[in-house]
Design goal:
- About 45% of the residues are buried.
- The protein has a six-stranded mixed beta sheet, with helices on one face. The protein has a four-stranded antiparallel beta sheet with strand order 12-14-10-15, with helices on one face.
- By secondary structure, it is α+β, with helices and mostly antiparallel strands.
- The chain folds into two domains: about 280 residues, Zn peptidases (Aminopeptidase, 3-Layer(aba) Sandwich), CATH 3.40.630.10; about 110 residues, Alpha-Beta Plaits, CATH 3.30.70.
- It contains ten helices and 19 strands.
- It binds zinc ion (ZN).
- Zinc ion binds next to helix 4.
């Protein structure tokens, strides 16, 4: 293991700064909610290039929910300057079965033109790309804009002591951000393919039907909660959720579990529970959806209990000058015109959208959260160039104000 680490470091000598820095981050085993020194690596580099680091730990060691977060800023001396922020997370999802990986997931192995390891795509690669972009620029140039980074260690977990609290802190301290780029892996297949300009809402809930125990041979003496729940789930599956919203996929409902915990085939159980999630566009809201859901309850004989598990509103960032600058930078580097989309799961952009327009653009997400997660080194270099070009053009346009 030590030998392979040494060998890898030797190979590293010929790597670009971005790849080498991404590797430094991958080596830190920051499986959510652990940090393992990942934020420290960032702080060291950022203070070297003129950023001021503000540590923002939230949660407590006692409760075992302490999360390290970082807000770092390179302030321009220009009065009333604009701030362009990059948001990302250093935590990663667990590696799963290590034996299934071709290379150690926390080695940052470079092979076949790829940087391998947990977080390579989601999203240590993008963080490295942004920081090296800042470094390249600040070495040569004084900017009329401020550059900031909002980094959390709590994105892949419960996300209660991460970005949401940093955003609260920024609001309290009246620290202003004018635009934010989130470095999530937004490109499904190739770099330059997709910018996320919002996210669907997500409503997770359970429905429990309460019936009456009984022998299957005497169903008239019982009340079957399974029958009721199947009826309700069928109704929900057939709900018409076809209102369309620009750049949003179809609103969708999925039943993910139906369970009674009943191991027998001759007893009618007491209760049955379903878990359901709806991903919805901006034409819907929680109240409207709950009304549609509850409408099916009156048609069954059982008592029905509805419990909301989690609820996130949809959002959409309207196109502005910053978005067109991002599109231009992407085109300049990749010769691709990115699609504007709101597909995929939720991200921390949902918290940041409350303080400024937020766009998401990062690496290719093909291998994120998977065994053998990796990033193509050419793509990583392109991403760094895109970020660099964006910062420079943002400085040109917004630095004038
Ligand atoms: Zn991510």
């Amino acid at each position: 293991m030590i030998f392979s680490k040494l060998l890898n470091q030797l190979i590293m000598k010929n790597l670009s700064e971005t790849t080498a820095f991404a590797q430094k981050l991958i080596i830190k085993k920051s499986v959510t909610p652990n940090d393992d020194g990942a934020i420290k690596v960032l702080k060291k580099k950022l203070s070297k290039i003129g950023f001021k680091n503000i540590d923002l730990p939230f949660g407590s060691k006692k409760k075992n929910d302490l999360i390290l977060n970082l807000f770092s800023i390179n302030k321009s001396k220009k009065l009333n300057n604009k701030t362009l922020c990059f948001a990302g997370h250093t935590d990663v999802v667990p590696e799963g079965d290590c034996k299934k990986w071709k290379y150690d997931p926390f080695l940052g192995k470079v092979s076949g033109g790829k940087l391998h390891g947990r977080g390579a795509s989601d999203m240590k690669g993008a963080i490295a790309a942004w920081i090296i972009a800042c470094d390249n620029i600040l070495k040569k140039k004084k900017l009329n804009i401020s550059l900031a980074l909002l980094i959390t260690g709590d994105e892949e977990g419960v996300a209660t002591n991460g970005t949401v609290k940093v955003v609260q802190y920024l609001k309290q301290k009246k620290i202003k951000i004018d635009h934010c780029i989130v470095g999530e892996p937004t490109n499904p297949n190739y770099i330059g393919e997709m910018i996320k300009v919002g996210r669907r809402g997500s409503l997770s809930f359970s429905i429990e039907t309460i019936g009456k125990y009984g022998h299957v041979a005497y169903p008239h003496l019982a009340k079957n909660p399974v029958t009721s729940l199947i009826y309700i789930c069928n109704k929900l599956n057939n709900l018409k959720l076809n209102l369309k919203a620009k750049n949003f996929p179809q609103t969708n409902l999925e039943v993910t579990s139906i369970d009674t915990g009943n191991p027998t085939s001759n007893v009618i159980p007491y209760s049955c529970k379903a878990l359901i999630n709806i991903r919805y566009n901006t034409r819907y809201n929680e109240k409207l959806l709950l009304k549609k859901i509850k409408a099916s309850f009156s048609e069954v004989p059982c008592t029905v209990k509805l419990k909301i598990i989690s609820s996130n509103k949809p959002f959409y960032t309207k196109s502005d000058k910053c978005l067109s600058l991002l599109e231009k930078s992407i085109y300049k580097v990749t010769k691709k015109k990115p699609t504007l989309s709101t597909t995929g799961g939720t991200s921390d952009a949902r918290f940041i959208k409350d303080i400024c327009p937020v766009y998401e653009f990062g690496s290719v997400g093909k291998t994120m959260h998977q065994v053998d997660e990796n990033i193509d080194i050419k793509d990583l270099e392109k991403l760094q160039k895109i970020y660099e070009d964006l910062i420079l053009s943002y400085n040109e346009i917004y630095g004038l104000n």
